[in-house]
């Protein structure tokens, strides 16, 4: 970027402009984006013209399908989203301290990490720092990686989901995640043994989104067994919704053992005697490369390591 462009951006680009870009990226419609940031459409149009003039190139192509980002626009939108996320987290942290708190920690986490490593680390953290505001977001690895990329979380527990993500994030293994095939207690399959995977395909399934590592592994195991994917599927990233659907339908689901453990003990769910997910890699700590984290975040990482070591010994 030459000096003239840099000078123009410093003098003319405001956070309201960044908010408009993010709203446009979400809506791909100027009227809806203007509504989202509470400005009139003519004002939003002028703001977009100012932004494109400051950058010196077009950010969106206008066509019958709406507004599509140009290649340079895509890079600019990613910057706008990261900047707004940083500002939002900074403002929340300041507000927490202003009200007598001790800042904010935002963590992305897959559902398999929540019942054990995450829960124990958060419990100890809050016992020592009760005024620290802790937020936990996400449920699947594709979700938490996206949250980390958008800078909406400080760190995450999950897995890398594409081969090139190691260029953006550091990964530190923390724990294994055993998967179980489960149905409700009164399911017709609950009393059947032995069972094979091919006997389950005709039943309804509740599966994680296709972009998640667990779903990818499930499809790979079907391929190895020469089986086609189930045709009756509900895709669900929410662990709460999945558990409710399981208990109120004849569906089968593949879920982490840590998530279904209490449901199995309470005999609300039954584990089917079919091994699956054995090759699913363990989850771990994900953090953006070459980024200094806050002291609470670093302390929380130390607690995660402490409890992950305990779980590995116990396992």
From TrEMBL:
SUPFAM superfamilies associated with the record: Periplasmic binding protein-like II, Winged helix' DNA-binding domain
Cited InterPro entries: GbpR_PBP2, HTH-type_LysR_regulators, LysR_HTH_N, LysR_subst-bd, WH-like_DNA-bd_sf, WH_DNA-bd_sf
Protein name in UniProt: LysR family transcriptional regulator
KW Transcription (keyword) present: yes
The UniProt record lists the keyword Translocase: no
UniProt similarity note: Belongs to the LysR transcriptional regulatory family.
Pfam families found in the cross-reference section: HTH_1, LysR_substrate
Domain HTH lysR-type: 13-70
One cellular component term from this protein's GO annotations in UniProt: cytosol
MF terms (GO), sorted A to Z: DNA binding; DNA-binding transcription factor activity
Keywords: DNA-binding, Transcription, Transcription regulation
């Amino acid at each position: 970027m030459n000096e003239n462009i840099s000078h123009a951006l410093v003098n003319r680009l405001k956070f309201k402009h960044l908010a408009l870009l993010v709203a446009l990226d979400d809506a791909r419609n100027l009227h809806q984006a203007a509504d989202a940031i509470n400005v009139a459409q003519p004002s939003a149009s002028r703001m977009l013209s100012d932004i494109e003039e400051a950058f010196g190139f077009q950010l969106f192509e206008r066509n019958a399908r709406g507004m599509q980002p140009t290649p340079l626009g895509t890079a600019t939108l990613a910057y706008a989203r990261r900047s707004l996320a940083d500002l939002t987290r900074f403002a929340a942290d300041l507000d927490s301290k202003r009200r007598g708190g001790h800042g904010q920690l935002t963590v992305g986490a897959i559902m398999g990490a929540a019942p054990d490593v995450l829960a124990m680390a958060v419990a100890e953290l809050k016992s020592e720092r009760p005024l620290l505001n802790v937020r936990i977001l996400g449920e699947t690895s594709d979700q938490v990686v996206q949250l980390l990329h958008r800078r909406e979380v400080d760190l995450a527990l999950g897995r890398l989901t594409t081969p090139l993500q190691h260029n953006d994030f550091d990964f530190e293994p923390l724990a294994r995640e055993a998967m179980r095939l489960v149905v409700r207690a009164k399911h017709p399959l609950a009393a059947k043994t032995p069972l094979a995977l091919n006997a389950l395909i005709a039943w309804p399934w509740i599966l994680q989104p296709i972009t998640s590592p667990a779903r990818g592994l499930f499809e790979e195991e079907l391929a190895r067994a020469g089986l086609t994917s189930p045709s009756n599927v509900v895709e669900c990233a929410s662990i709460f919704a999945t558990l409710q659907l399981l208990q109120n339908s004849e569906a089968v689901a593949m879920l982490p053992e840590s998530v279904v453990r209490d449901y199995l003990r309470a005999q609300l769910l039954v584990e089917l005697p079919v091994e699956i997910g054995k090759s699913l890699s363990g989850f771990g700590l994900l953090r953006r490369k070459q980024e200094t984290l806050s002291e609470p975040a670093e302390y929380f990482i130390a607690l995660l390591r402490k409890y992950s070591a305990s779980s590995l010994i116990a396992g």
